[in-house]
Amino acid sequence: MNEGPLDIAYVSVFYPYRGGIAQFNASLYRAFEELGHHQKAYTFTRQYPDILFPGSSQFVAEEDSADPIPAKRVLDTMNPFNWLSTASDIRKTHPDLLLTQLWMPFMGPAFGTIARRMDKDCMKLCVVHNALPHESRPGDTAFTKYMLSAHDGLIAISDAVEEDLKRLNLGKPILRKEHPIYTHFGDPIDKQMAREELNLPKDAKILLFFGFIREYKGLMNLIESMKFLSEDVHLVIAGEIYGSFDEYDAKIQSLKLDQRVHKHVRYIPDSETPLFFCSADACILPYITATQSGIIAIAHHFEIPVIATPVGGLSEALRNGKAGMIVKGTNVQEIANGINEFFDKDLSSRYIERVRALKKELSWTELARDIIAFYEMIKSSKTKH
Fold this sequence. Notes:
Strand content: 15-25%
Largest sheet: 7 strands, parallel
Strand order of the largest sheet: 3-2-1-4-5-6-7
Structural class: alpha/beta
Shape: globular
CATH topology of the largest domain: Rossmann fold
Distance between the termini: 18 Å
CATH class of the largest domain: Alpha Beta
Oligomer: single chain
Number of strands: 13
Radius of gyration: 21 Å
Number of domains: 2
């Protein structure tokens, strides 16, 4: 066992940046803090070039309940000379552990260079959200391998990620962990109050599609599935789009769904997140491909049932159908059949009971403890050799 608190250099995206990875990092940072470890957080001066982030802003809004982690803004992902100076800055603090996160290969060269320039006695661990992206670009595999091969151990956030890591054949120990449940969005609110605030029909069956709108998330199939659902089933689309919403709008118009599809195609600040989840009867993830999804962690926090396609790590996150409904496939009819079954059999309470049990299991403190135990295991193994 470790003889005392670790000195951790935590390099990733933190406040004032926004998004799911920043929220993940803030929660994990606070868990390490709770366990008594010493941390220095490092984040970006420039995270992405605009071409990789076509949304409205990379930064938190006033309405967000972002945790202002005291991260030092030093890293420019577009400047290799900066990677070296950032590594030098971190190395001067002599950390026991360098902790990074991988969510897209673009980060690989910067993080891989920093990890390679740490002292030999500094352990390097990486939490991997996506080993390879849903929308691939040239160089993805090379960037990912360059980064991960510089680490001593990898933490996979889903079975799908673990399988991708094994296929990359990096020869690194892998710790498989679940995505903990978010707790920073506040308490649930009354469903009817939420619907009134969002101007949604009081007695409708409401499905929620939440988060960034990307092609791989299957929103087009979900919209098309609405033609197989009863008139009292409504869909709320809440999230910012990468690109244009015109194609989706055209489909909504052609299917005459204007009165049943409620569009909030914009960045949804943390302050509004409870409204959207608590107004819904179910959160739906009609993804065509996936590794894992932080949206499930938010839905679980608000105890809202999830309906998802059987791709990537979604099924395991929903305990293979015990903590949410897994539809039979990703096509329009299969999605519609699953939604109809969910409402016809009134399955909501069955799933919520399991979700309440999961909320006790999937804590940030447990993830932090397991990462430290993983560190100690690898360190012990290296000492023996």
